[in-house]
Amino acid sequence: MINFLLLLILLICVITDIKNRKIYNNVIYPALLLTFIIHFAADGWGGLGYSFLGFLIGFSLLLIPYFLGGMGAGDVKLLALIGALKGGSFVFQSFLYMTIIGALIAAAIILFRRGVLKSIIYYFSSFKNGVKLPGGISKGSLTASYPYGVAIALGAAFQVMTEGTITLW
């Protein structure tokens, strides 16, 4: 049931993040309350403590990127919710997958923006031939942003699929 709830929340958040570039509080907060209730009902105070510790771990993992402006508050709350649902170990493993997936998405966006890949190849081939070209890669080509909720969801979904089989740490 927890995995189904997690995947449902992730699906909703991915859709809203792609469509509106927002992860809404009216999705996160009720799900968080339901999560705490489920864990308390299943395991009492121990279950609530497990859920709260997972929440704190998930929340803390994205605080620095949030304060540096690289992450939205919705992304932080979504990862905290994942921690509350599945626990600290799960959210940390999801965070590792999310980071890898997020980096791959960012690299793909940068490389496939109009003309960027061609500029990179041309620029580096000029170094090989000993010619320094003025300009290089425009800074604007490297500043694209994307809804990071997608990477968070893919990392968590991958962790659900591989739970207990692959451990990165």
Provide a descriptive summary of the structure in words.
This protein has 169 residues and is an all-alpha fold. It has one domain. 75% of the residues lie in helices and 0% in strands. It is built from 7 helices and no strands. The longest helix has 37 residues, at 25-61. The two termini are 26 Å apart. This is Prepilin type IV endopeptidase peptidase domain-containing protein. InterPro entries: Prepilin_IV_endopep_pep, Prepilin_peptidase/N-MTase.
Give a short overview:
This protein is mainly alpha-helical and 169 residues long. It has one domain (2-162). Helices cover 75% and strands 0% of the residues.
Morphology call: elongated
Radius of gyration (Å): 19 Å
Q: Number of helix segments?
A: 7
| Unreliable residue stretches | none
Note the main sheet.
Answer: none
Strand content: under 5%
Topology, number of strands: 0
The helix content is over 70%
Characteristics:
169 residues, 7 helices, Prepilin_peptidase/N-MTase, membrane, mainly alpha, transmembrane, Prepilin type IV endopeptidase peptidase domain-containing protein, transmembrane helix
Layout of helices and strands:
Layout: H1 2-20, H2 25-61, H3 63-67, H4 73-86, H5 88-112, H6 116-128, H7 149-162
GO biological process, one term: signal peptide processing
Family: Belongs to the peptidase A24 family.
Keywords: Membrane, Transmembrane, Transmembrane helix
